From TrEMBL:
InterPro entries on file: MAP1 (IPR026074)
UniProt organism field: Onychorhynchus coronatus (Royal flycatcher)
Descriptive protein name: MAP1B protein
GO MF annotation terms: actin binding; microtubule binding
Gene Ontology biological process terms in this record: axonogenesis; dendrite development; microtubule cytoskeleton organization; regulation of microtubule depolymerization
Gene Ontology cellular-component terms listed: cytosol; dendrite; microtubule; microtubule associated complex; neuronal cell body; synapse
Highest taxon of the lineage: Eukaryota
């Protein structure tokens, strides 16, 4: 099929082009988990045991509910039901609502959301932390 000038095909671009999946141990979801950069195709292709979800800015929609829902939709298309752990860096309202509203689907898909209750104290500074064994 040839196309002349003016006959351009417009398609929705994806942050991750279609192709075979890539398997990783730990993935930091880019751009504070903003839906402009992460979609269902990202989670279909970028398969990880652990995903770090950052973002604590509800005005900027970070983390994005659309990104969290994309994880569920993308993981549902994997050919295995390996366990996935979601590690939020902040306790946000979006994360709490998503967790409660989709808890049953998370269990079906073998997705665990890690709630960090540990605190690391270094000199005069303390911060939440979690331990990950790879």
């Amino acid at each position: 099929v040839s196309k002349g000038p003016g006959n351009t095909k417009v398609t929705k671009s994806s942050a991750v082009p279609p192709g075979p999946p890539v398997y990783l141990d730990l993935v930091y979801i880019p751009n504070h988990s903003n839906s402009k950069n992460v979609d269902v195709e990202f989670f279909k292709r970028v398969r990880s045991s652990y995903y770090v979800v950052s973002g604590n800015d509800s005005a900027a929609e970070e983390p994005s509910r659309a990104v969290l829902d994309s994880l569920l939709e993308g993981k549902a298309q994997w050919d295995s039901n390996m366990q996935v752990t979601l590690i939020p860096t902040h306790d946000s309202e979006v994360m709490r609502e998503w967790y409660q509203e989709t808890h049953e689907k998370q269990q079906d898909l073998n997705i665990m959301v890690l709630a960090s209750s540990s605190t690391v104290v270094m000199q005069d500074e303390s911060f939440p932390a979690c331990k990950i064994e790879l």
